[in-house]
Amino acid sequence: MMAKRSPTHRRWSSSSSSSRILLIQALALAITTCSLSTVSAIYCDKDNCYDLLGVEQDAKLRDIKKAYFNLSLTYHPDKNPGDEKAKDMFQKIANAYEIVSDKESRKRYDYALKHPEEFMWNSMQYYRFRYSPKTDFRLVLLFTVAVLSALQFYGSKARYERAMTQAKRTTIFKQRLSNLEHEWLANREAEARAKALATKYGKVAKRTGKPTKDIPQDVRRQLMESIKLDVGCEPPDWWKTLGGYIIMLPVILYRFASFHASWTYKYRILGKSYESGPYADRALLTRKALKFPEHIWKDELSETQQASLVQRELWKPENLVEFNKERKKVGFLKACGGIPKPARVRTSRWDEDRFESDE
């Protein structure tokens, strides 16, 4: 059985409980008093922002602006040179006006006056308003993406124009341009003769001097643009910048997910062999085995060369090893077979080891 507590012990326990309650009440009173004294100090030191401006708490914005204008004229440092009290008062008025003139700040200040016991919450709201960026983060992000996209676009444009300038200085380009100019002049003379024969009068001017002097600049520009150049970089495109990729992100994700889902269903779930798949899938496997970028596969190899490589089933390791051995002996172009594409005007080559000379 438990021993009974003595009356002295019960009195000590009762007094101890009473003292703990009194201590808790004292702490709560101290915290409340501290919060009451510091809730306005967060905003306007020990003063009330409305009292500093001489307006009521429910005053309209135009009345607050009018009061601030009059007080700022009265306590302006230029009108009170050397008066420190006027300078401090001017700063307090400016701070009070900044708080109550903003809709969100005034709302938080009124809440702090109404609920002084929520000191931590009021402090957080004040410092959030005071030190958080005033500009919307979404606008900042949008501006950053726009600037980066513009830098990407104009950087790629400068590189492309520089590469085009170098390509137009090559001998192959000049010969092709000369051939196109002669062809254009011959067509123009043929049209003039046909017109003269049809009307039975008029003379056809003979071509004299260099052909480039007789060609208008706009026509010459069109002829230059008609020559396909391989300058080692793609023309500038807004859709290939950061902003373009962000805009096209849903489409990119949809295509990526649908492609991989279809591939997994056909070759993983149904267990189909790659040999029985469509030509596009086998070409993709071949390109991946050779580690060719897509633009190299399309631009450097002809259709017959691509078909010849696909037929060799290079996605199989043993076939790839055999192809690499053959490539080292006879060169890549002979190893892949097929009819190669005609030479184009180029300023750089991609991976000389893959497109080495067949001599």
What do these coordinates show?
The protein is mainly alpha-helical. It is built from 17 helices and two strands. It has helices spanning 7-38, 41-44, 49-53, 61-74, 84-101, 103-114, 119-131, 137-167, 171-199, 217-226, 242-247, 249-269, 279-290, 294-300, 303-311, 317-330, 332-336; strands at residues 229-230, 345-346. The chain has a two-stranded parallel ribbon. Helix 5 (84-101) crosses helix 6 (103-114), helix 6 runs antiparallel to helix 7 and helix 13 (279-290) packs across helix 15. It is elongated, with a radius of gyration of 42 Å.
Structural class: mainly alpha
Rg, nearest Å = 42 Å
Strand order, largest beta sheet: 1-2
Molecular shape: elongated
Number of E strands: 2
Number of DSSP helical runs = 17
| Share in β-strands | under 5%
Low-confidence spans: 8-13, 32-37, 201-213, 345-359
Largest sheet: 2 strands, parallel
N-to-C order of helices and strands: HHHHHHHHHHEHHHHHHHE
Question: Which features would summarize this protein structure in a list?
Answer:
359 residues, 17 helices, 67% helix, elongated, disordered C terminus
Summarize the structure.
Helix content is 67%, strand content 1%.
